[in-house]
Amino acid sequence: xxxxxxxxxxxxxxxxxxxxxxxxxxxxxxxxxxxxxxxxxxxxxxxxxxxxxxxxxxxxxxxxxxxxxxxxxxxxxxxxxxxxxxxxxxxxxxxxxxxxxxxxxxxxxxxxxxxxxxxxxxxxxxxxxxxxxxxxxxxxxxxxxxxxxxxxxxxxxxxxxxxxxxxxxxxxxxxxxxxxxxxxxxxxxxxxxxxxxxxxxxxxxxxxxxxxxxxxxxxxxxxxxxxxxxxxxxxxxxxx
Length: 240
Description:
The strands form two sheets. Strands 1, 3, 4, 7, 10 and 12 form a six-stranded antiparallel β-sheet that branches. This protein has helices at residues 2-25, 161-166, 212-239; strands spanning 27-33, 38-44, 53-58, 63-68, 78-87, 90-91, 103-110, 115-122, 137-144, 150-153, 181-188, 198-210. It is of the alpha+beta class.
């Protein structure tokens, strides 16, 4: 009985430790703004041959992009972006892993426009070239501006068909490469009036989600812990 009690007590202790670790590290969360270590830049459609403009004014709690959306290309846009490959004014050692998160919250206000676009650019190992903006794979969607912020699933962002058409591809290949994030952008959404000055006021960007790889490892450890306890009980009883 003493050996059973010792084995059970050790199992309970390890199980309690497992619960603490699981609860503490189960979810990932990261704030991109206002706690920001990444380079922030004015976003325009110049790289795509457009003529829209964007000027940034930044404080500790807000970034204001004064934009003017002009025609001159099929899909004009302007706003602001986070260069996720530049951390504290130094080159990042790796891509930004969006696949560690499930959801995003963007706290944003606008002067006139009713919608804003959210876009993630990822480094496609086949089609992307380093430091060539137009070669990155865009995942984006337009959202209605809401008081208190926009909450969205990262997996709601889709690659526009025109990106595939620009590469000569006939259909969406369904790939995302979220583990290879390069840029996060907030810009004018659908229905923005052309040629009229507007403002995008960004007050916060937050990412969160379940740490999937950690959860898988922890469940494997739990199964091993239970199996080890069962084996020890069987061994002790047989010895008895």
